[in-house]
Amino acid sequence: MFLANTSSIVRVVTGSAVSTIGVHADWVDNATGTYTPGTTNTAITTATTTTVVAAPAGSTVRNVKGLKIDNNHATSSCVVTIQHFDGTTSVDIVKIALAAGESFAMAEDGEWRHLTAYGAEYEYSAPGGGNLGIAGTVAETIPRELCQEANVSPLISGTVYLQGLYLKAGQVCTNISFFSSTTAAGTPTNQIFGLYGPNRQLYAQTTNDTTAAWAANTIKTLALSAPVTIPISGVYFVAILVTATTVPNLKGMASSNILVTHERALRFNSNSGLTTTLPVPALIGTVGSSIIWAAIT
């Protein structure tokens, strides 16, 4: 990335106040054949626009060789935009949502790489083919046409329940849906859905539907706080938390818990005593004996 005049800079736009977004930049200045390397470190803690590579001096071209952005927060994600500004026009080079602990780096070849909290590179591939789910379905825990629609009762008031499903890299998750069965929610006070990663790290949760009615045999669809782009193919978990005098039962199907506990649990009760937010991360508790239907759109 070249900065070719005394007004050209590289900026980072942070979408939220996260402590701390760390930016490391390396460059080489070419002043009529004299090459001088340089580097800067910048810490960003607010939602703002920050210059991370300053403009070069006159008669100098600054070649930005590397740029690395780290989200050092323990739990919160942050949308980060890298911009090139030539003094007149600002252009977004790339934009990404960094989960807690993740990094985004531009190598010397100009390629951008998304790194996990453990430093491994995420893989991206095209989403899979269509399915027979509800309109806009990305994935289902049980294919809709195969669900027995049994009246399963995995929920305990104030306890979050997780159900595994397979998601592919590149898929975008915006909403989560569950379908009540013969029992409605009685006097609900909190109703929250969420999406967890392969290591039960919270990617996003929905707004709290609090006391809104959830009738029997009715689908409830809630929007995530922000869309989540799946970084790597694998097993993820949809979560449901309801606090109510009577929790609803859900559409699903009965199943043995022998296969689903082999190597890793695919469905389980997690943290209890919850009210207005989902746990970070989710713990593995009692394995459920039934599969619940849920969909991501």
What would a concise description of this structure say?
With 297 residues, the chain is mostly beta strands.
Flag low-confidence runs.
Answer: none
In percent terms, what proportion of residues is strand? Answer: over 45%
Q: How many whole angstroms does the radius of gyration measure?
A: 23 Å
Overall mean pLDDT score? 90
**Share of helix among residues?**
under 10%
Helix segment tally: 0
What's the topology here?
Layout lengths: L1 E2 L5 E6 L6 E11 L2 E11 L4 E5 L7 E11 L6 E8 L4 E9 L4 E4 L5 E4 L23 E2 L9 E3 L8 E7 L4 E8 L6 E11 L5 E4 L13 E11 L4 E13 L3 E5 L12 E3 L20 E3 L1 E3 L1
Describe this structure in words.
- The structure is a single chain.
- The protein is an all-beta fold and 297 residues long.
- It contains no helices and 22 strands.
- The chain has strands at 2-3, 9-14, 21-31, 34-44, 49-53, 61-71, 78-85, 90-98, 103-106, 112-115, 139-140, 150-152, 161-167, 172-179, 186-196, 202-205, 219-229, 234-246, 250-254, 267-269, 290-292, 294-296.
- Strands 1, 3, 4, 6, 9 and 10 form a six-stranded antiparallel beta sheet that branches. A five-stranded antiparallel beta sheet has the order 16-15-18-13-20, with no helix packed on it.
- The two termini are 37 Å apart.
- The relative contact order is 0.16.
